[in-house]
Design a protein that fits this description.
With 347 residues, the protein is an alpha+beta fold. It has ten helices and nine strands.
C-alpha cells in the first residue's frame, strides 16, 4: 500500500477532516548511471567543501541565504518552527468555479484520502457537494518547508489535490518571448481550410491510446546495443511550412485527413503484394526481391505514400545492404535505385 507524503487536516468552515496526501502519478522515464568513458566506473556526486576539498556529511550542512556581504545561516529545524500549525492544516479559503482556474496554474496532482473509516461520511459529503456545484476549493498548506497553493477537486468519487503556481510565478509571454507574432491577417480561405483540418482531425479524448514511443525506442536501443543488433535511425523532422505554400499545405492536409481509408487500402495492397512475393528458402527470396522491384518499377513517386515499415519490408525482400540503418527517405532512394529503368515508348 502507498504511504502518504503528507498527513494533516482538511479544513473548510467549521468542518475538519483528517486526510492523507498521496502521489497520483509515476514517472516511467528510463534512468542512466554516469560512467567514465572507456570504463565501467560509476561517477558519484559528492558534497564537498569548495575551500578545503573535503567531503561534508549531510548532518553538518545548514542552509545559507546570500545577503550580499555575508550568509545568513538557517537551521532546518528553524524553518519548521515558524509554521508548526500550518504544516498540519490544509485550510480551504473558499470555493471558485473550476473553469475559472486557468490550466497554466496547475502543477502536480495528489490524491486525498480520509485517515480512517470513521471520516468516510465527511469525505464523501465534500466530494459530492463539490461535484454537484462544479466548484473547486482553493487552499494553502505547508509541506517540506514550502507553502503550497492548491485546488481541491472532486473527480470520479474521490478528492484530488492539485498544487498550483503562485500568480507571480506565471511568466508574461509577451515580455519573455521576443519572436511572438502580432495579430496577423489570414485570408478567409486559409482560416476556412484550417477549421476544416481541425474538424477532420477531431477525435475523442482517450489517453490510454497514447504511450511514450521515445521510451520504447530507448529500450530498443539498449537491447540492440546489448545484443549487437543494428539500430534503425529516426526519420528527420519535417521542414517548416512557409507562408507561400501554407494554403497548399492546408489543402493537402485536409485531403489526407479525410481519406484514411484510401491510405489504408494502399498500404494493405502493398502488404498483400509483398506477402505473395516473400517465402522461405533461397529461391523464394529471389522471387520476393523480384516482386519488390516490380512494385517500384514506376520510380520514386510510387513510394511516396508508403510508411517506413513498408519500405523496409520491400528493402528486405530486395536484399538491400545497410537497410537497417537507413531513414525512410534513404530507403525510398535505395529502392528506387534498385528498380530497372522504365521502358520508353517506341518512336
Amino acid at each position: 500500500m502507498a504511504r502518504p507524503v503528507w498527513a494533516g487536516v482538511l479544513s473548510f468552515g467549521l468542518v475538519s477532516l483528517p486526510v492523507g496526501l498521496y502521489t497520483a502519478t509515476d514517472s516511467h522515464t528510463i534512468h542512466f548511471h554516469q560512467l567514465q568513458r572507456g570504463t565501467s566506473d560509476r561517477i558519484r556526486n559528492r558534497r564537498v567543501n569548495e575551500r578545503t576539498g573535503d567531503e561534508v556529511d549531510l548532518a553538518d550542512i545548514v542552509k545559507g541565504y546570500d545577503a550580499g556581504d555575508e550568509y545568513v545561516l538557517v537551521e532546518p529545524e528553524e524553518l519548521d518552527e515558524i509554521a508548526p500549525g500550518r504544516s498540519q492544516v490544509l485550510d480551504i479559503a473558499g470555493f471558485v468555479d473550476l473553469d475559472d482556474v486557468d490550466p497554466i496554474f496547475f502543477d502536480k496532482t495528489y490524491y486525498l484520502a480520509p485517515r480512517g473509516k470513521e471520516y468516510g461520511k465527511v469525505y464523501s459529503l465534500l466530494e459530492q457537494a463539490l461535484d454537484k456545484a462544479g466548484k473547486t476549493g482553493i487552499a494553502t498548506f505547508v509541506m517540506r518547508q514550502h507553502e503550497y497553493l492548491v485546488a481541491v477537486k472532486a473527480e470520479e468519487g474521490l478528492l484530488t489535490c492539485h498544487t498550483l503556481h503562485w500568480a507571480d510565478e506565471i511568466r508574461d509571454p509577451r515580455k519573455e518571448i521576443g519572436s511572438l507574432p502580432g495579430r496577423t491577417k489570414s485570408s478567409a480561405k486559409e482560416v476556412r481550410m484550417a477549421e476544416q483540418l481541425i474538424d477532420a482531425l477531431s477525435m475523442p479524448w482517450k489517453p490510454e491510446e497514447f504511450h511514450d514511443t521515445f521510451r520504447d525506442k530507448v529500450t530498443a536501443l539498449i537491447e540492440a546495443k546489448r545484443t549487437g543488433a543494428s539500430v534503425e535511425k529516426a526519420e528527420p523532422p519535417a521542414g517548416a511550412t512557409g507562408v507561400v505554400d501554407l494554403a497548399e499545405a492546408l489543402r493537402a492536409s485536409v485531403e489526407r485527413a479525410r481519406s484514411p481509408k484510401d491510405t489504408r487500402e494502399k498500404a494493405d495492397t502493398t502488404a498483400k503484394g509483398h506477402g505473395k512475393g516473400h517465402g522461405k528458402g533461397h529461391g523464394k527470396a529471389k522471387k520476393g526481391a523480384a516482386a519488390a522491384k516490380k512494385r517500384i518499377g514506376g520510380g520514386p513517386t510510387d513510394l511516396g505514400g508508403l510508411t517506413k515499415a513498408e519500405l523496409y519490408e520491400m528493402a528486405t525482400a530486395a536484399r538491400l545492404p545497410g537497410r537497417s540503418a537507413m531513414t525512410r527517405e534513404e530507403l525510398g532512394d535505395a529502392l528506387a535505385g534498385a528498380a530497372p529503368a522504365p521502358k520508353r515508348a517506341a518512336a
